Known about the structure:
This is DUF1501 domain-containing protein. By secondary structure, the protein is of the alpha/beta class.
Amino acid sequence: MDRRGLIKALIAAGLVSPTALQAALRTDFKYLVLVELTGANDGLNTLAPFESDAYHRLRPTLKLATDQIIRVGESPIVGPLGLNVELAKLVDEGWGQDIAVVMGLGYPAPNRSHFSSIALWETGGDGLQVRNRGWVTDTLERLYPGQQRIHGVTLSQSMGLFKSGRGVYTSIANLNQLKGYQPASMEATSNPLLQLMAQRRSDLSLASRTIRETLESYGASRLPLQPRYNPLGNQLRDVMRIIGAELPIPVLHLQHGSYDTHKSQKYRHRSLLRDLGENLSLFSRGLKQMGRWDDVLVVTYCEFGRRALENANGGTDHGTANTHFVMGGRVNPGVYGRHPSLTELVNSDMQHTLDYRGLYDRICTQWFEDPLERWQPYREPDLSGLIRARS
């Protein structure tokens, strides 16, 4: 029985009051799970304006027909909107309850380089200015101070999200690889720089040991259900173990893809979305059964969108504005933002209608409740009700 189950059992026995339960649950740790769709997902065929004449002209072979979508909303600019039917498992699990779609995300002077643009998304920059720190690191280090605190973990090899962070951030491609890993000792030295390096090494070693020892006591067999046994499912399984063990790591980063569909997109993209939808639906269902869905916010992101005009190879090239998902027990469901025009393109690209840093503002202020977060200048009124306050 987990801590929540124990408290509820005590209430049933008359040993704990409902008020005490509410206070206890309010102290539960919050997790932000960031799912990077590597290579850049095609947002236009994820949330499709399936009745738009312009969409049909731009996508003569890649367009989605009415039997390939799940209608979810309407845009005054492009008409009815539908999610790709390959996301059906995800829709069945929580559409209308705890899943939001944010459309038109982008930034000024877009960069179409994979490396450069993902660095901008992960630090909060744009084509006009470059930032040198991960977009969420300031908030994490201010709200969760203290030594031996683990601020963020990536389940992949990429550490760009935590760039120049002064907290403790570590990359764990596979949690099982930590078995036998021992903490590093502090070397005696009077050199301040060497002392700092030794302290950082010790912090990372201790963080790795803490994760390993905690998860050894919370094996995958304790989970109420299992995500798929594939790269994304395996990462989500490890995240569920971290949450189940109540290991206080505020940000968990995963990767899925590649979505770089320059050719043969029709079948590759369907397979990717199906895998994404199935795994995220199992993840949310499992956390609901664990009683932890209200403590988790899942957000997808990637470096850019795909070009609106399909290419001659049955694919799409690097583009601009994109659509992303926000999920969790405290998410107000629906479609947010304004869909970009498909008739006012620049070099066959849609123009973004919502600065993606406005989403970062909502995450920092509404999810982490950071009163000093740095993304307030990009606040978007369209996103004001995206995340509910704790009840």
